[in-house]
Amino acid sequence: MTGADRDSATAVVVGGSTGIGRGVADAWASAGFETHVFSRSRPAGPGADRLVWHRLDLRDADRTGAALRAGLPSRIDLVCYSAVYFTARREPFLRTDEADWDDQFAVNVHGLARTLRASLPLLRTAGPGMFLHISSEVVYNAGPQRSGYAATKAAASSLIGSVAQETDPAEVTFVQALPAGMVDSPGIRARRSPDFDYSDYMTPAAFAPLAVELARTRGVPYAGDALVVHEGGTWTPIGDGLPVSQSLSRAGSRP
Asked: What is the distance of C-alpha 144 from the center of its chain?
């Protein structure tokens, strides 16, 4: 991509104010893309001034589609969907709060579908555009006490796979990426005790090298792949080995 092309290229990250989405947004902004972030909270901290923020609450079904259509730039080269809803703590299915269950579907599945509907026509004009979905090991491992999260992330992964099969890869490429372990983020910290040790957790910046590679290649070498991102910024195809279950591992067993 030439300097002129890069100056005119545009990226969108839904759920990009914190966590993995923020790692992707910062990487794309640093690479020279005009980067738009759609989220409930405004991005803060270093690099936030390089991001164009649009307030979006994916739990508000009546407004989400309209907000996306109104806020999306007229040209989009890259989209990342990283929005996710966690419950306050892990609980058995029969104890799951019904409102939490509905919110997980609203954000993890319906929000993704609405983002696809709004962005795909614009991505097609980029020739090819690239859509990155942040997936999870729960798609492959399920696990106890996270039925809503497992159900919604599996549905989201299948949705991406289905839409990818409907779409000419010369128009839009689809890539899914998931962390090899737990990632330190505000959402996770809200579920942990103040003295919790995060030293063995990944950081959102681990996703930056992959984000830059996908931007450079428009995802063409990875079209249709699910990639496991490791601490240190490397990645491997999911076929090379499933990540350890975060429910059954030492770190994942905590509430």
From this structure: 23
Burial label for 131, CB within 10 Å (0-12, 13-18, 19+), is buried
Within 10 A of 73 (CB to CB), how many other CB atoms are there? 13
Number of domains in the chain: 1
* Alpha carbons 149 and 22: distance in angstroms, whole number: 21
CB 248 within 8 A of CB 143: yes
Q: What is the span of the domain harbouring residue 85?
A: 3-240
CATH code of the domain containing 142? 3.40.50.720
How many CA atoms lie less than 13 Å away from 198 in the CB half-sphere? 16
Dump pLDDT digits (tens) for 56-102. 999 998 889 889 988 999 999 999 999 999 877 888 899 889 999 99
The token pair at 169 is 């890869």
- Full-model pTM: 0.91
Examine residue 222 and state whether it is found in any structural domain, yes or no.
yes
